[in-house]
Amino acid sequence: MRLNYVQTGPAEAPVVLLGSSLGADHRMWAPQLDVLSKRFRVVAFDHRGHGESEAPDGPYTIEDLGGDVLELLDTLGAEQASYVGISLGGAVGLWLAENAPERFHRFALICPPSNPAETPQPWIDRAAQVRAEGTKAIADATLGRWFRPEFTETAPVREMLLACPTEGYAACCEALSTTNLVPALGAITAPVLLITADSDTSVPPETVVPLAAQIPGAHLEIIENAAHLVTYSHPDVINPLLLAHLA
Ligand SMILES: O=C(O)CC1=CCC(=O)O1
Prior knowledge:
By secondary structure, the protein is α/β, with parallel strands linked by helices. The protein has helices at 30-37, 62-76, 88-99, 121-133, 136-146, 155-163, 166-177, 205-214, 230-233, 235-246, and strands at residues 5-8, 15-19, 41-45, 81-86, 104-110, 192-197, 219-223. It has one domain (5-246): Rossmann fold. It has a seven-stranded mixed sheet, sandwiched between helices. Helix 1 packs parallel to helix 10. The mean pLDDT is 98.
């Protein structure tokens, strides 16, 4: 699978991969790139079916998306990396922490859905709606979950969502509908920073806070007055946390 990616920072520095939210692409990491690339070789990639990555017909699985990241590491010539993921990218991070610990130093997982398969029907319904009507049909509702009303710089994110391939978005919804990463959380060995946002209605804090007790040694941060896409709306709060954890 050919994943699209951009990289910045010194070529010889430790690699940090950035995995995006459902419907967004590598451009959503713009508020993190300058800061992280002073210390790391930063690789922001598009999941399959997103941005400019290949978009085969779905359904996909979380194993597909995680396997793509391992292939990307091989393509980059990186034996190991650290991984930062938000939302769908956070679920992929949990899968990587559980299934490929030898390839990763540290994880920062932001608003990660750990068991979306618990309620699969909304994901199956969303996939059907997007296949029928495109991502424009879900754009207003999605941005309403991703940002609090006082954050108004949402136009670039809307543009990413509208540009997301219909089949890729739908197939990733189907991946979420079959994903349950909870049973293996206790086997995670890498240091994990978990970040949740108090106003996140996509992946509510009540579903993230308990993960800190289930992942050995995990550290939890709860960001106040923030919704799901907290990396984009609150970089001044998030970037120092990422730097402190990854360094
Ligand atoms: O609500 C959304 O669209 C964002 C999201 C992606 C994965 C998830 O659980 O929520």
